[in-house]
Amino acid sequence: MTVKFLIRKEGRRTVEEAKARVYVRFKDGRRLDVTVQTRLTVNPLWWDEKREEIKTKVICPVEVRYGVAEHLRSLRNAIETEYEKTDRAKVNKSWLETVIDRHYNPEKYQDEVKVNLQDFSALFDEYTLRHKVSDVRAKNNQVLKRAVMRFELFRRLTVKGQKAYTFNVREVTPAILGELWEFFADEHKHFDTYPKIYAAVPEKRKPKPRGENAIIDMFSRLRTFFNWCLDSGYITTSPFRQFSVPEPVYGTPVYIMAEELRQIADFDFSSRPALAVQRDIFVFQCCVGCRIGDLYRMTWSNVEGDVFDYIAGKTKDDNPKTISVPLVTMAKKILKRYESSGRTTILPFISEQKYNDAIKEVFRLAGINRVVTVLDPTTRREVRMPISECASSHMARRTFCGNLYKRVKDPNIVASMSGHKEGSKAFARYREIDKDIKRDALKVFEAI
Prior knowledge:
By secondary structure, the chain is of the alpha+beta class. The chain has three domains: 110 residues, no CATH class; 123 residues, no CATH class; 151 residues, no CATH class. The protein has 16 helices and ten strands. The protein has a three-stranded antiparallel beta sheet with strand order 1-2-3, with helices on one face. It has a three-stranded antiparallel beta sheet with strand order 6-7-8. Strands 4-5 form a two-stranded antiparallel sheet. Helix 3 packs antiparallel against helix 4 and helix 13 runs antiparallel to helix 14. The radius of gyration is 25 Å and the shape is globular. The N and C termini lie far apart (77 Å).
C-alpha cells in the first residue's frame, strides 16, 4: 500500500495567484490504483513532485510551508490508520473518499462511532484518531496504551475472580488507578515472572524501573484520555476527580558552559569520523536550542538566510508560533559542512538512542567530565556523577537556554527562541542556579 500526493493545475491568472489542487494517489498492490482530491491547493511553481512538498528553495512564509507539510502528514496518517483497520476487500475508491471526508468532517460521522467500552484498546485508538497530537506525544500515548493492556492481563492472572477483567472506562475507580500506579512502578519486576503478558503485548526493550516523574507523565496522559471520554459521553464521571496526580519534581538543570561547548567543538575526532558527525549535530543543537523531535524533522527549508525558522511540534496544536533563531557562526559552519542535495534532512541523523550514546562518548573523549549533582529520576534522590554520564540531546537544549539566560536574564527573550510557553516553570529552575544574577543583585549593598 502506498499513499502519494500530486497536483493538477486548475487554471492560472498570475504567478502569485496560480493554484493547483493536491490529490491523493492510493495504490494497494496491483488490485487498486485510485486518485481522490483533497482540500489543499498550492502554487504549482512551488511544488516538488519528488518530495511531495513545497520546494526547499522557494521563498514563502514558514507558516505556509509548515501548514502544507502538516496537512499532508495528518491526511497520510489518517489513511494509513484506516487502512490497517479495514478489510482489504472493502478498500476501494469509495472507501478512500469516505476516509478523506471523515478526516475533514469528523462531526458528520460521530453517530457512526460504536465502541465497545470494555475494549480499552479500541476506545483508546478512537481517542488517538480524534485527538491530534505531535508525533512524539502520539508515540508516548501508544506506550501508555500497551502498558494498560498489560495491566489488564496482569489482573486476570493475579487477582482472584478477575480472569475476564477488562479496563472498562465506566468501571475504573480510584482504587483501580491506585493498582495501575503500582503496576507501572513494578512492571520491570513482572517481565520474567509473567512472560505471557509480554509475549501478548510486547515492547522493543525489557521494561526498566520507572521513576515517579515517568509515572506522573503516564497518568497525566491517561487523565486526558478520561477527560475525552467524559466530553464524548462515554462516561458520566471521571475516576480522576477522586484520584490526585502529584506534580513532577525536577532537579536543577545541568548544562555545559560556553567554554566547554567550544572545547567539544574544537576537539579532534579525526580518528572517529562517525562520532565527529554526531558531535557536530550536538553542537548545532546547542546553538539553536530546539527539541530533538523538532531537530530531526528539519530540512533546508527551515533555513532562511542566516535564520533558523520552525514551529515546535510540542505546541503546534495548542498555540502554533514560528520560532526564529539567528544562526551564529559556529552553526553556519556546521551547516556548510553538511550541505548535500541528496539528503532531505538538514543533518545526517541517526536514531535518537544512538545519538544520546554518541553524545556521552563525545563528552568523555573531549574531557568534559566535571562532577555535577543531579536528581535520580527513579529514586528522586540527589546523586553526584560526571556530567558525561548524564549528557543527552536534551542537554543541548538546556545549554542553549542556560547560557542565553545568563547573558540576557530575560525569560521572554529566551522563550522567543526556545519555544517555551509563556510562564514556563523551566526558567524558575534556571534562576535558581544563576549565581551571577545573585551577585549582581547584591551589588546594591556594596555602597553601604
